[in-house]
Write a sequence for this structure.
């Protein structure tokens, strides 16, 4: 599978991401945050997406935006590849930390974050409207803790 940076100003790219999102997260509605960098994974058709955005809470911090992998493409390490790709991009941008959040019932995503070095934490100002969500962070520059 190849992962490609895409241009979310194109309607067809937005539609593709939203179709995968609907398959992966049918309970979520109304999400449309196209700022930052976005990728699609192809096999050969699009099977996954992920985003990376600058944190609006802290300078030098990136946010792993929503990511989804179609059911038929799961179990092949694709989500971990997308996490690592976004970590490399964050380092290129000079960011020192990555943050994200998950539903507490999303064990596959939580396990992938742990395998990629993320740890749960309690932010000073939780950003999710869902109180039960789990927050994650990873310091990506050596010597920063």
């Amino acid at each position: 599978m190849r992962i490609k940076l895409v241009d979310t100003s194109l309607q067809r790219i937005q539609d593709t991401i939203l179709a995968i999102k609907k398959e992966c997260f049918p309970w979520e509605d109304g999400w449309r945050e196209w700022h930052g960098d976005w990728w699609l994974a192809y096999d050969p058709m699009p099977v996954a997406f992920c985003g990376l955005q600058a944190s609006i809470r802290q300078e030098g911090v990136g946010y792993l935006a929503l990511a989804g992998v179609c059911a038929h493409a799961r179990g092949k390490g694709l989500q971990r590849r997308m996490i690592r790709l976004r970590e490399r991009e964050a380092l290129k941008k000079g960011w020192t930390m990555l943050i994200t959040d998950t539903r507490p019932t999303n064990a596959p995503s939580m396990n992938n974050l742990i395998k990629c070095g993320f740890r749960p934490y309690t932010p000073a100002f939780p950003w999710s409207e869902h109180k039960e969500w789990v927050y994650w962070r990873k310091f990506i520059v050596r010597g920063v803790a």
Summary: The longest helix spans residues 78-92. The chain is about 25% helix and 30% strand.
